[in-house]
Amino acid sequence: xxxxxxxxxxxxxxxxxxxxxxxxxxxxxxxxxxxxxxxxxxxxxxxxxxxxxxxxxxxxxxxxxxxxxxxxxxxxxxxxxxxxxxxxxxxxxxxxxxxxxxxxxxxxxxxx
Length: 112
Fold this sequence. Notes:
By secondary structure, the chain is mainly alpha-helical. Helix 1 (3-16) packs parallel to helix 3 and helix 3 (39-51) crosses helix 4 (59-75). The chain folds into two domains: 3-75, no CATH class; 78-112, no CATH class. It has helices at 3-16, 24-34, 39-51, 59-75, 89-95, 101-111. The protein is elongated and about 60 Å long. It starts with a helix and ends with a helix.
């Protein structure tokens, strides 16, 4: 997630919880904690906390939920089909008419 996406989530949160600070030092420090996560995982975590009636934003709880949601996203990403035989990547690409690994990934993404 880039810093603008992170700031967008924080602005959403600051409207809903009065304890969210948008000063430069706070944003920079928090961004370092969350930059490895996706925009969607943070947005979902914030929505979950808000919808479940949190009266103030607990950062440790937000971090844990964001991390869990992000890990779930990684697990559910589409994966390449298994090779038709066990002769390795070159054979798999050749048998499936892919010119390179990027072709295979692109093809499998478009199937979903």
